[in-house]
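Q: Got a minute? One more chain.
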Amino acid sequence: MDAVGVIGVGAMGKGMIGSLLQKGYRVFAYDPIPAAQDWAKEVGAQVADSPAEVGRMAHVVITSLPGPAIVEQVLLGMDGLYSTLAPGSYVLDASTIDPATAKRLHEAGLEKGISYFDCPVSGGPAGAAAGTLTIMVGGDESKLPEITPYLQGIGKEVFYLGESGAGQVAKLCHNSVVAVITAALGEAFTVGAKAGVDPQKLAAVMDKGSAHNRVLSVFGPNILYGTYEKTIFSLDHMHKDLHLYTKAAQEKQVPVLVGGTVAQMYEAAKAQGKGAWDSSAVCSVTEELANAKISK
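A: Always. Here it is, folded:
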């Protein structure tokens, strides 16, 4: 069986490990949290003591980590992955980070003969568990055939976007649109509720009309029932992604008139202590400003 390393046994990493094991891969997992290590052992993965040990065990390693700083630490830090990975190995970084960091990690990998690909994903924990993630890839296209089987081990749709960093650009743009639609749904449902139109019926109209969107099917129930504590994708994570998106836009001198405004709404929700809630909790900001509730 092919050996695959997975670094980061969080909500996404767990799903990836499960999918890889189901497809016959031998998985070496690392996470500093004891509970995550115990979970990995229980499902059949072998647990490593450090990123460096993962690098000794596998020539293909998937990372799924919270942000740029920890990704750099795991790859380049003391006892990091790059210190032990053999030349000809592959790092498939499924974390959502900024394009500049992805390019820097790509260049550092080249110096050691390691191929780094930014491979951020969409589909959430449910998609990771089902092996149906959408994967956005940036990196050396000539080596794409060699990593595709591993990407298909965790996902269904694989899109090659271009050189290193392109996958991250796509993911940040994608999540910005998701955030904007989420906030727009909250605003529209609040208007409907205050005007006496049942938000449930308004949602049904949107589902059949030109306003149909997948965000409504994924996050709609939390918005309509006010169950923001049922976290699908945390507000903290979306807040981080929007920060990276606006930073990337500024570097390219693109005004973020819509995304920037929505980013401030997420900033407000985070300041209210809602970071651990679902990202749809941004809608509560509009509800509070309007002194209204969407849910009955």
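A: Residues 166-194 form the longest helix (29 residues).
Q: Perfect, thanks.
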